[in-house]
Each structure stands twice: as structure tokens, then as C-alpha cells.
Specification:
The chain contains eight helices and 16 strands. α1 packs across α7 and α4 runs antiparallel to α5. The protein is globular and about 65 Å long. The protein folds into three domains: about 180 residues, Rossmann fold; about 55 residues, Adenine nucleotide alpha hydrolases-like domains (SH3 type barrels); about 80 residues, Translation factors (Elongation Factor Tu (Ef-tu), domain 3, Beta Barrel), CATH 2.40.30.10. It is α+β, with helices and mostly antiparallel strands.
Length: about 375
């Protein structure tokens, strides 16, 4: 229970369905400069999150606990987040938080309490394929709020023990339900920031833990011509336009980041377009990796509309994705998630992107996909 309306309603729905519910707020990260109150009660969504969750639990008549997972969160989420930016990648920290914390550490704790499942306020749905017996992750009914792109790494064992009660509701229906119950979080605004970067300045966090990522270096164009100097690769992500400190007759964007040479490469909007990418740490949620290329729609960031593509497994837990049309700002470190209808076929972490706006590829590494 983060102290937001979604997890509040998730708990309320389970109580209504007759489950014995325990409310849990994870104390995941407290900045070193935090005051004493934040250090004591800081939860996953700010200092007030735990208190709001406690008030909801009281209204629902369920126990509420605050569990200190600060060390686990630092190891599983914060350290990899910092390392990714230092390596010129753009991480998705919610992936590790869900797999390692909520459906990892917390699920193990839940089983020690003899609980059968862990429920969250994620907008997603789970069903079971009657033919295979496998658990299937599906997009939420409210596609505007769908969060399956943060859940694709979940294993079959984790999905079996996961519950997403608000997945069948729209956001408006969730708020209306909370108002009917008189829950204190019914009209609470949504948080748009990372829970461990409440002021939105992730660079300060990275700078404090990886200062080498903030060494000045060259900004070059795609021919290698030096255009200026940047204040450190930790400041940038692929597709970024602001903060380059360059002037010219056309807009320029970050198209590549090379921490080995401490170089940021920029180009125009067309230089951002990629048709092919390779993903690592791949998980095929709904079944085994397909023996031949699979037709899907693929999503390369949370705000991206899934686009028609082919996906083909590669050795070593990797996969290749070939889009019908070039996609803009394919950033290494972000997720690529592939769907068939509302079913999450699988996903992976983008390792590299290739094939710019030149001739349309006729093959996917020789596998014969037009």
C-alpha cells in the first residue's frame, strides 16, 4: 500500500471479496538529507505515503505494517539505476522493484505469514491458459493506465501469486469506488516522480554515487566532428534535446552515448529513427520462445504506442525485434515489450538499436522475414 488511491482500492476490493488482507507499506528509500520524520516513516511514495496507507487500512479494518526494505531496495533498484546512467543507458527502475521487491522479497515474506498472494494497485490483468495451464499477463481494461510494461519480467511462479484487483477498472471507476467507501485517498493526486527521487533530480543521485559519469567530454556529430562539450554522460539519454548547450539552424538530439570514450553523439530527428533492435534479459511470459519469428506489436517505452513488428529469439536470452516502420529514440536500457492483442507475449531490455532510415531490411538476420 503506497498511500495512493490504486493500492487503496485494490485492498478494498479484496476485503469485499472476503479475503483476509494485510496492508503493507515498504520503506524503500530515504535520502541522506531527509529529516527525522522521513527517516522513520518514509515509504515508497513520500513521507505521507505510510500515514495515508495507515488511514486507509484503519477505514477498511485491516492490519497495516511498514516494512524496512531500504537495504534491499538500494541493492536491487538504486545501485543498478546509477550504474545504468553511468554506462550511458536509460534504466526502468520499476522493473527491478516489481520483480525483486514486491514479487520477490515481499512475496517470500508473505509466504512466511502463510499468505497466498501479493496484491498491488497495478493496472494489469492475469488469466490462465486452459490449454497449457500457463499464467498469462494481459493489458488492463484501461489502456491509458496500463502498466504491463513494468511487469513483463515476472515469472510463472510470481504471476501465480500475484493479484491485480484494479486491472478490470478504469481510473475513473477506481476513484468513484474510493469515494463511495469514503477512503481518504480517493482524490489524492498521482505521483509522477520516481519514489526514490522525490524532487525529480535523478542526476543529483547519480552524481553523488557515480561522479565519474559527470566528467566533461566531447559532443560530436555522426561524422565525428566536434560540436561542443558536455558536462558528463550521466546527464543524457537517447532522444534528449535540452541541455546540449549547442546552437544552430536545426534541432539536435542525442542519438548515442559512449561512456568508454566519454562522448555524446548528436544528430537531427531522422538520425533518431531505428528499425531494428536487440534485447537482452528476455522473458517470454505466455509460453516458450517461438521457433520462428512471431508477429507482434512492440512498445519501446511507457508512453510509446505499440507498433507492428516481428520478434525472433536469439541465443543467450536475447531477442531481435524488427519494426515495420522506423521508431524514434530507441534508448538502450529501456524495455521493449511485445503484445498480441491484450496478451503480453514477452519483453526484454534494449541492448542496442540499429538500421536507421536507409533501405528497408528484407530479412531478420537471414531468417527470411519480409
Amino acid at each position: 500500500m503506497s498511500g495512493g488511491v490504486d493500492s487503496s482500492v485494490a485492498a478494498a476490493l479484496l476485503v469485499e471479496q472476503g479475503y483476509e488482507v494485510l496492508g503493507v507499506t515498504l520503506r524503500v528509500w530515504v535520502p541522506p538529507e531527509a529529516d527525522a520524520e522521513a527517516r522513520r516513516f518514509g515509504g515508497c511514495c513520500g513521507t505521507g505515503g505510510a500515514e495515508d496507507a495507515r488511514r486507509v487500512a484503519r477505514a477498511l479494518g485491516i492490519p497495516h505494517y511498514v516494512l524496512n526494505t531500504e537495504a534491499e531496495f538500494a541493492r536491487a533498484v538504486v545501485d543498478p539505476f546509477v550504474a545504468a546512467y553511468a554506462a550511458g543507458r536509460t534504466p526502468v527502475p520499476c522493473l527491478a522493484c516489481n520483480t525483486e521487491l514486491k514479487f520477490g522479497w515481499l512475496l517470500r515474506r508473505a509466504r512466511a505469514w502463510e499468505a497466498t498472494a501479493v496484491a498491488t494497485g497495478h493496472y494489469a490483468r492475469i488469466s490462465r491458459d486452459p490449454a497449457t495451464g500457463r499464467w498469462v499477463l494481459r493489458r488492463s481494461r484501461d489502456l491509458r493506465k496500463d502498466q504491463t510494461d513494468f511487469l513483463w519480467p515476472l515469472t510463472q511462479a510470481q504471476l501465480a501469486a500475484a493479484r491485480f484487483p484494479v486491472g478490470e477498472l478504469t481510473k475513473e471507476e477506481v476513484r468513484a469506488y474510493a469515494r463511495r467507501l469514503g477512503l481518504p485517498t480517493a482524490d489524492k493526486p498521482e505521483s509522477q516522480e520516481l519514489c526514490f527521487v522525490p524532487d525529480g533530480d535523478y542526476r543529483r543521485l547519480v552524481r553523488g554515487r557515480a561522479p565519474a559519469a559527470f566528467r566533461p567530454g566531447p559532443i560530436v556529430d555522426e561524422t565525428g566532428r566536434r560540436l561542443g562539450e558536455h558536462p558528463g554522460v550521466g546527464n543524457f539519454t537517447v532522444g534528449q534535446r535540452r541541455g546540449l548547450g549547442l546552437s544552430g539552424s536545426r534541432p539536435l538530439y542525442v542519438v548515442a552515448i559512449d561512456p568508454a570514450t566519454n562522448t555524446v553523439t548528436v544528430g537531427d530527428a531522422r538520425a533518431l529513427e531505428r528499425r531494428r533492435l536487440v534485447a537482452q534479459a528476455v522473458n517470454f511470459v505466455a509460453g516458450e520462445p517461438p521457433p520462428t519469428p512471431l508477429r507482434v506489436t512492440a512498445k519501446i517505452r511507457h508512453s510509446h504506442t505499440p507498433a507492428p513488428a516481428w520478434v525472433r529469439p536469439l541465443p543467450g536470452g536475447r531477442a531481435e525485434v524488427l519494426f515495420d516502420e522506423p521508431q524514434r529514440a530507441v534508448a538502450p536500457g529501456q524495455s521493449v515489450v511485445w503484445y498480441q492483442g491484450d496478451v503480453v507475449v514477452g519483453g526484454g531490455v534494449i541492448a542496442r538499436a540499429e538500421d536507421t532510415t536507409g533501405a528497408r531490411p528484407a530479412l531478420v538476420d537471414g531468417c527470411g522475414v519480409a
